[in-house]
Amino acid sequence: MRYVISRYLFWATLISITFLSLKEISQEIVPELPFIDKFIHFFVYLFLSLLLLKGYSKNFSPQFLTILLFFYGSSIELLQGFTIYRSAEIADLIANLLGIVFGVLIHKYLSKHLKKGSYEKF
């Protein structure tokens, strides 16, 4: 029963991100702020990495999970390059990687410094 919430949230988020990443989005709803999409990439992959590590680090090594998530992000970027309404960008891939790395660091910190039980229950 442990880590069930993290696992469900991870899969729900992953499915949502996959759908949104490959869907055509109207330019009217995209804010005109510089680099906003890079911040979105960063925080989405930070959140995904926290959920993935929290839900599955007892079953798989953190290194494997990190590589797996980076492979997923790379695959999505590659697939976007095959659509007529999206483009694959190296900068997005870098933002994804930075989000994953920060997620790993935060997970490590929380696992080590929070009281036993408070972070464990989520």
Architecture blueprint of SSEs:
Blueprint: H1 4-22, H2 36-56, H3 62-80, H4 90-113
Helix pairs in contact: 1-2, 2-3, 2-4, 3-4
Question: What can you tell me about this protein's structure?
Answer:
There is one protein chain. It is built from four helices and no strands. The protein is mainly alpha-helical and 122 residues long. It has one domain (4-22, 41-113). α1 (4-22) runs antiparallel to α2 (36-56) and α2 packs across α4 (90-113). It is elongated and about 45 Å long. The N and C termini lie close together (11 Å).
Largest sheet: none
- How far apart lie the N and C ends? 11 Å
β-strand percent reads: under 5%
| Large-scale geometry | elongated
- Helical fraction equals 55-70%
Radius of gyration: 15 Å
Number of helices: 4
Mean pLDDT: 88
Number of domains: 1
Low-confidence runs: none
Kindly name the structural category: mainly alpha
Topology order in helix (H) and strand (E) letters: HHHH
Number of strands: 0
Quick recap of the structure?
The chain has 122 residues and is an all-alpha fold. 68% of the residues lie in helices and 0% in strands. It has one domain (4-22, 41-113).
Keyword list:
about 120 residues, mainly alpha, 4 helices, elongated
